[in-house]
Amino acid sequence: MGDETCSQSAKSDQNGKSWLAIILVGLIDIVLLYGITLMYAQGEIAFALLTLFLMACGSWVFISQRGYCYRYVFPGLLGVFTFIVFPLLYTINIAFTNYGSNNLLSLERVREIHLAKTYSSGDGSWGFRLYQEGGGYHLVLEDNDGNQFETLSFGELFEPVSIQAAPLKPDSAGTTGTPLSMREIIKQRSSLKQLTIIMPDGTGLVLAGLRKFGPLSKIYEAQTDNPLILTDTRTGETLYPDMNSGFYTDGTNEVGPGFSVYTGWKNFNEIFSNPGIQGPFFKIFVWTVIFSALSVVFTLIIGLLLACLIQWEPLKGNGLYRMLLILPYAVPAFISILIFRGLFNQNFGEINMLLELLFGIAPEWFSDETLAKSMVLIVNTWLGYPYMMILAIGLLKAIPDDLYEASAIDGATPWQNLTRITIPLIIKPLTPLLIASFAFNFNNLVLIALLTGGGPDLLGATTPAGATDLLVSYTFRIAFESYGQDYGLASAIATLIFLIVGLIAWLNMRVTRRMQEG
Amino acid sequence: MAMVQPRNLKYRVWYARIALWLFLALILFPFLMIISVSFRSGNFATGSLIPENPSLEHWYLAFGIPWENPDGSVTEPFFPVLLWLWNSIKVAFFSSILVLMLSTTGAYAFARLRFKFREHMLTAMMILQMFPAVLALVAIYTLFDKIGDYIPWLGINSLGSVTIAYIGGIALHIWLIKGYFETIDNSLEEAAAIDGATPWQAFRYVLLPLSVPILAVVFILAFIASIGEYPVASILLHSMDKLTLAVGSQQYLNPQNYLWGDFAAAAILSGLPITIIFLACQRWIVGGLTSGGVKG
């Protein structure tokens, strides 16, 4: 039924401009198709498919009349799909691989790297003379038959460089510049070691001694019947890719770099059975739940009390109070969190200075587990109560005044007003917001990353894990902080977080729906 | 209003007032402290709330001007704060424009047009809004790494990548604008349609001019959100001259190079404009938050 309105709208909107649209879409498609071919050629199949799918959808929407209505939503959905949905799916995909800093590349790239490895084989040698001309140097090489080759000029070298060499005709006047003595050649040895000289026939030469250059040979060559298996040309040993570990191996030793392979449920098994991960994971999970719940409770209590207080009419000047009370919410969170990090500093922080002055104590906010956790909660309550206050003010305005009027006639105390009238009336519309707030705090990476960085560290963890880490910051640290970044494990934990967040989202929808019905 | 007042009202008002003042003192302590710290000389100096020897050292450095110490040595500014602020503003401005364009057109279709999967899309948006980008950082990093192979100015360590990554957050804004569109009577648009206006014209010339307030709110919300965004920016940006403020500021408090005083001045300098924008637009933002929240 919906389609009819759409094509009708489309007809009225397409007077003569449609050919322009088709040309435009066509041009964009050509560019994209070129990109897709490149991606496919490089083995990025997931990304090629993604682009192809999005391109097909886009073309249909902007050319077909039936897709008219979708023209308005397509660009937005494209953004959501590319930057939210696709990363979520891709994360789940990575969770089943060993992708990480040790296994970063594809099998094909690793094979190419192995095939490009060379050594100086020592058969055949080229004597050389080093010439200096201005600030630059060049070499003249001579093979056993007396043929001479001259290289291009080079300066002082600190990293590997390939340069071309060309034949030096015997009848020409020879090369220019001053030849250098052996002593000076020794001085330049570190530069010469970086050189790979490409001869006219394509062989590469490297320094093979103080007086000669020798040819480079490939260490590995691919077997003809199975190009994935490599043979060491020096020893005849074979290297084969181990699809379980993601490394090339000769049976005993792994040869880096590794490639990423699907490892099935390995990452998930690690989380639940490896004591170095399982222990911290459950500790962190429990703390994440406690942290989120307490944050919601504390901010709600303070926010609600303040909302009641500044909505109270006899208290004059509540505009100013409100402004000042909202201030923690108005200042960007990353700034306030860093301010707290400085204020809580054990040695130079103003908070400890004050406590020292008043009570003679200097709590170790960042190294004691309980204190660090309380600090995180204090700061988060400070950051979050204005939001609850704002919500509560909005909801309080909707409560009719005569309810309080009636309770005042009956002589109710403020406490009774709060518990018998205010809370029962606002708790229902507030519930979905509280669940959303719980979900927000559950994933509050910014607070932990900027305030404690997760610390103090938990003992006995194989990956970096701290007492104040939330699940997301734990994931973040596994993926981006430590040496040996393990994207696969991080994605597996992220996948578990998806499940939890999905559950919270589902709960929220149910509560919202029940509220709308009721 | 004739409210029945209890007899001891006067005392209660005073109790409430004093409690509120004490609470405010506690809440505002960090701000007062940071202002004080920014005028102290040196990065480790301690002292009372009002500095004994006020110095503009940290403020000079925050503005990128070298500071000459009393002993004649010159301190160079450590971090390019103003550049970071400018980066943040660029990213926030362009991403907010993009978010605004995409969410307005999307909200129009959801509010006014009828098409297949409309309900499903709306529900999906609501659920997706609960999944922040924080959860998929590895994938986002890989995605931009790959994009960068083909379009360098959208790759890792470019401001363009951060700008477009923030488009993912439009779901909430679509809901917000859609709610506003639905409060506008569509008889005007119908009249325009009868006069031969296409849906696009009805949207562009009738509905949009009527919706300026909500567009301003969404722009400001998106702007503030992207200025304060930390996780995505921290993985995508690396080099000192590309950082946004949210990523760069934490470098002041590195234990190996603790620049507490310099941080204080930089924090005030960069936080103040954003805070003022927020407070100035407070009424609309609060309205948008509560209505969007209650609906979401």
Description of the structure:
The complex is a heterodimer of chains A (518) and B (296). With 518 residues, chain A is an alpha+beta fold. Chain A has four domains: 2-72; 107-114 and 220-255, no CATH class; 118-218, D-maltodextrin-binding protein, MBP (Periplasmic binding protein-like II, Beta Barrel), CATH 2.40.430; 270-517, Orthogonal Bundle (MetI-like fold), CATH 1.10.3720.10. Chain A has helices at 2-13, 18-41, 45-63, 70-95, 107-116, 182-187, 189-193, 266-273, 275-311, 318-330, 333-343, 350-359, 369-397, 401-409, 414-442, 445-451, 471-480, 487-517, and strands at residues 118-120, 126-133, 136-142, 148-151, 161-168, 178-179, 195-198, 204-207, 212-218, 220-222, 230-232, 238-242, 247-249, 254-255. In chain A, α2 packs antiparallel against α3 (45-63) and α11 runs parallel beside α16. Chain A starts with a helix and ends with a helix. The mean pLDDT of chain A is 83. Chain B is mainly alpha-helical. In chain B, the strands form two sheets. Chain B has a two-stranded antiparallel ribbon. In chain B, α3 crosses α10 and α7 runs antiparallel to α10 (212-227). The radius of gyration of chain B is 25 Å and the shape is globular. The model of chain B is unreliable at 292-296 (pLDDT under 50). Chains A and B meet through α1, α2, α4, α9 and α10 of A and α1, α3, α4, α5 and α7 of B.
